[in-house]
Amino acid sequence: MNGLIALLIGGVLLIIGRQFILPTIAMFEWGPELGEFEPAGYQEGNWFLWQALKWLFLPLFIIYNWSNPNDLVLEGEDHLEEGIALGEKGCKMVFYFNHSGSADVWMPQLILRIKGALNKKFRALAEMFVYVIGLKFAHHPFFGWAIKCARRIWVVPGTMLPKKRPPVSNRMARDAYITQLDRIRAVNEPARSEIAKQAKKGFWVFIAPEGTRQEDGVLGEPEEAFLQLFDLEDPDWVFVGASLAKTRNIWRKGASVFTIRPFKPVTLSICRPIHVGDLLSQAEEISSKYEITKPRAAVNLLMYTLAEPKFKNGELAECGVFAQSWEERFPLRKGTKEENEA
């Protein structure tokens, strides 16, 4: 009898696992297939939910900072002040960061409020972010409601794109593949115009060039499609890097909600602002010298900027490939002066 009961319980748990737990894990990692009516474009945040969450957690971190004043660190305040001044002059600001853990989406705001408490503009900036978020989180049972508190623009990152093209002979799979591409375009195309629209209003675009969290906490290769979200012919774009260190210790990728350790040391290093014109001219120079496309050179330049504070702080292991020089990563273009000399 006991064996039969155990068998029935095991069967029930197996059904629950297959129907709910495993699909949820897969959805969190890769995102579901896009449906016909997916959220797209800009969505305003729920002000009441934002205030509730802010005043629930902010006092706790204030107490933590008071008892451990060296754990939360804000570096590069002069760069941030320069970026704020550019925003006040009408520049369209992008706040880009390295993505090593789920805490990356809230720690910059907390550190700006706590460590920049005496600077009114730093506190105001913490309320001026528009999050560019992967669509998979719209369907997540935990993050789905939490994200509603923030201003957001939905995108379909590279991690959610179809992994391979079905053969022409498989018409059913081919039609499903084409449908998915159409639905992806329906999300990503409005995102580009909405990003420019919100930036023009004075909001800062909050985005990770890597497109997803890095499991090992090391700077990852950025997606070239990252820059396609911006009209690079518009000279008003300015990119301000935020190099985050140690956020992975708070909540690692793939870890359970119950493993969150919110009160851990975190360093936020603000990098020098980069005007889009300077970014593209440097990328063109690098592309003419090395075997790398101009778009890829541009996004790599942004990641090298994020690596600079890690070099300075002795965190070379977190730099990944960006601990190497351009010469070490890419071969010289044939016919260049440097290639001939080599």
Determine and state the CATH class of the largest domain: Alpha Beta
Task: Write the CATH architecture name of the largest domain.
Answer: 3-Layer(aba) Sandwich
Helix/strand-derived category reads: alpha/beta
As a percent range, the share of strand residues is 5-15%
SSE sequence, one letter per element = HEHEHEHHEHEHEEEEHHHH
Count the helices. How many? 11
Contiguous low-pLDDT stretches (5 residues minimum) are 16-31
Helical proportion?
Answer: 40-55%
In the CATH hierarchy, what is the superfamily of the largest domain? Glycerol-3-phosphate (1)-acyltransferase
What is the total number of structural domains? 2
**What's the Cα radius of gyration?**
22 Å
Compute the number of strand runs: 9
Summarize it.
The chain has 342 residues and is an alpha/beta fold. 45% of the residues lie in helices and 12% in strands. Helix 8 (276-289) packs across helix 9.
Overview of the structural elements:
With 342 residues, the chain is of the alpha/beta class. The protein has 2 domains: 1-30; 36-341, 3-Layer(aba) Sandwich (Glycerol-3-phosphate (1)-acyltransferase), CATH 3.40.1130.10. The chain is 45% helix and 12% strand. The protein contains 11 helices and 9 strands. Strands 1, 2, 3, 4, 5, 6, 7, 8 and 9 form a 9-stranded mixed beta sheet that branches. Helix 8 packs across helix 9. The radius of gyration is 22 Å and the shape is globular.
